[in-house]
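Protocol step 4 of 5: obtain the predicted structure for the target chain.
Materials: sequence only (see below). No template structures provided, no constraints applied. The aim of this step is simply to have a reference model before the mutagenesis design in step 5. Sequence pasted as it appears in the construct record:
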Amino acid sequence: MPAGIAIQPLARFAAQVWRNGGGTTRPLAGHADGGWRISLADVTRNGPYSRFPGMTRLSLIVSGAGVTLRDGDRTVVLPPGRTVDYEGDMAWDASLDDGPVVALNTMAAQGRFVARIVALTDAQPDSTTVPTGVFALVLTLGGRCAWSAAESFTDNDTAHGTLDPTEVLTRNADGPPLCLAPLASAHGNGLCAALVTIEPVHASGNPKESKGTYA
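Step 4 output (structure tokens):
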């Protein structure tokens, strides 16, 4: 395995019960000082979300009908299969749309990091490349996803392989380029994997410019 890349089964990430008992979450990766965090949560009942002042939150519902968040007259809808960002410092109260859901969640400190969650589906005609300088995490969601430590799959001399269902690949920011190609989905919803990227914000207030196609 190339330096900076690791692959582990999801089962190795221990689940933790929420403080309010409303569900469990599996921390998948995080910054040493709490500047960003990636986790996979099982939301089993209605209830409040924890507040995270100064953080931008992103959620991708990977299983279930969705969640609606409310704080006073403000509403955020989290439908299945689409990434939604929302403010972490609001007192969101969550209502399940039709039973429990599984959500891939990311939070990042505003002004320090920019987070993205990209759904990789079997309908995508092209591969996705994540350049160096960006932390990347890939979680297979019942499907499979091909990977290569290169800018494209045409470089046969680089390390490559296939992520099986419920595997987690991480690529450190100083690791090699990462090329991804979703394969067939196992559940018929087209969703093969999810790609999460975290990149630092430079002094200009903008994330590092790159030629990657993940955004």
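Step 4 remarks: The chain has two domains: 9-109, 113-200. The chain is about 0% helix and 50% strand.
Proceed to step 5.
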